[in-house]
């Protein structure tokens, strides 16, 4: 990750992050540490051998919950928060472009809506149903695929968003899938659903 990308990643994680789910915020992390590729001394030989080169994700498939979506690129909004996919009928997931690409060492971040207003269900509507070991496949721009296995699924209150766990440095390629969660009320969704996954394999 370049120094510019690292600064942008930290900015988004440190600021009051507003990830909209049909117009509702999903969390307000208050602390963070730089994230991305850790120093070589922290990377295990196994992780280094499995890591892929940088290539932008273009498609995401999660067979267990029927997700097969194009992936758009997201950056920072004018207020310093992370952008989110637009609210539209053709709902898509979005990869935060200042995070590692899927398969690089570090936490690659992909966002999706749980609902999209009048259009109904969002692409990540069933994200909370995933379980340990479920496959998540990211198709990359260079034609390869990075296959991840879910390691955990957490539903957390927005006020308790686990910034360090989501954005903190890790010594292997990992994936974070984030959406809204909990029962929807007048003020929106009270929780976030966060899927943690680790790279299992790559294929052409």
Structural description of this entry:
Helices cover 11% and strands 32% of the residues. It is mainly beta and 204 residues long. The protein has one domain: Sortase (Sortase, Chain: A, Beta Barrel), CATH 2.40.260. The protein is globular and about 45 Å long. Residues 14-19 and 23-49 have low confidence and may be disordered.
Which stretches are low in confidence, meaning pLDDT under 50 for 5 or more residues running? 14-19, 23-49
- CATH homologous superfamily placement: Sortase
- Classified by CATH, the class is Mainly Beta
Share of residues in strands: 25-35%
CATH topology: Sortase, Chain: A
Structural features:
204 residues; mainly beta; 3 helices; Sortase, Chain: A; eight-stranded mixed β-barrel; 8 strands; 32% strand
Report a brief summary of the structure.
This protein has one domain (3-203): Sortase (Sortase, Chain: A), CATH 2.40.260. It is globular.
Indicate the topology.
Elements lengths: L2 H12 L30 H6 L6 E6 L4 E8 L18 E4 L9 E6 L23 E6 L4 E13 L5 H5 L5 E9 L9 E13 L1
Parallel strand pairs: 2-3, 4-7
Antiparallel strand pairs: 1-2, 1-5, 3-4, 5-6, 6-8, 7-8
